Automatic annotation (TrEMBL):
Keywords: Oxidoreductase. It comes from the Bacteria. Signal peptide: none annotated. This is Nitroreductase. It holds the Pfam family Nitroreductase. Belongs to the nitroreductase family. It comes from Paenibacillus qinlingensis. Residues 25-75, 88-164 form the Nitroreductase domain.
Amino acid sequence: MSASLPAEIETHRQPEHEINPQFLERWSPRSFSDQEVTEDALLSLFEAARWAPSGSNNQPWRFIVARTPEQLAKFHTFISPFNLVWCEKAPVLTLIFSHTKTPKGTDNPSHAFDAGTAWGYLALEANNQGLVTHAMGGFDADKARETLQIPADYQLHAVIAIGHRGPVEALPENLQEREIPSGRREVSEFIYAGQFE
């Protein structure tokens, strides 16, 4: 790789094949500082998500963003207690969801796949902007749907915390030891030649 990695990343993540360092540097910390995320930086994340590929270019992903104390408090009502312990410090929360129908009104079989791609683009751009993100599935989707008035033909996927990284010591003790970049299984464990084996 052309660029040197931060020691924290290099200790826990070693690629088997040559890749851009951004894929290793992006991970999901839980400690957030209360430093504000500027409007320009935040919008750049959604600009990156905008350019994600999607089936038939339907772009089914949607985001509801919470930044004000009132908006954040609303989000806090449907996030699980385990996640709320750490994510309530994040200055920005966003819910990613997707339209299950195409513009013609037929079922869109790739809506979730496409939304996941948009989240990946957003997460990589956050890292480029010096921000951290952490997506969580631990939330009450039914309560979120009701609270945020989301129609039935949209599927809710994750709540994403966005902000600047905070100190490890700010986390509860049981989470401090988990505040490291996670590893991944080897490429040979998830690709198959010709057929599934």
